[in-house]
Design a protein that fits this description.
This protein is an alpha+beta fold and 156 residues long. It has four helices and four strands.
């Protein structure tokens, strides 16, 4: 290293000028000279490929999460519609044996099925009421929600 330093000093360069020049500093340190420092094209391509695969996987995860959240929202709405329909039967809507159907906002279809419920163990002849089995179904796309209950209604 001293011989190399003396070679540069003999050319009239000061020590500061020698050390400020990256090429001479590398020569004095004994490391081989490289034309350029930085990333090779292969390293950049590998890093970009890893980044692209990672982003693709993350996008699939987020997409599936949004799809499941949307499905949960539609299921919750259908359940609320079924519960509210079931709640009206016997209060605002009379209990009558039979079936009826309709649609909510052309998205959800509903159907109601009301049948008399047999109570073999109970002598209900003295009651002015009958027990009915009420079923409500709300459907959307290829999914359905069923709710059912027993309600008292007028004797038929």
């Amino acid at each position: 290293m001293l011989k190399s330093l003396q070679k540069y000093l003999s050319r009239g360069l000061t020590k500061v000028e020698i050390m400020e020049n990256p090429a001479t500093r590398r020569q004095l340190s004994g490391r081989p000279l490289r034309a350029e420092s930085g990333f090779s094209l292969l390293e950049v391509l590998v890093a970009f490929s890893i980044l692209a695969l990672s982003l693709g996987t993350l996008m699939q995860i987020f997409s599936k999460g949004l799809e499941l959240a949307s499905m949960g929202d539609r299921y919750s709405r259908a359940l609320v519609l079924a519960e509210s329909t079931l709640a009206t039967i016997g209060y605002t809507e009379p209990i009558e044996t039979g079936e009826s159907s309709g649609a909510f906002d052309n998205v959800y279809d509903w159907s109601i099925k009301i049948q008399p419920h047999n109570l073999e163990d109970l002598d209900a002849s003295s009651l002015d009421l009958s027990l009915y089995h009420v079923q409500v179904m709300v459907a959307w796309e290829n999914r359905r929600v069923f709710l059912e209950t027993l309600r008292f209604g007028p004797r038929t």
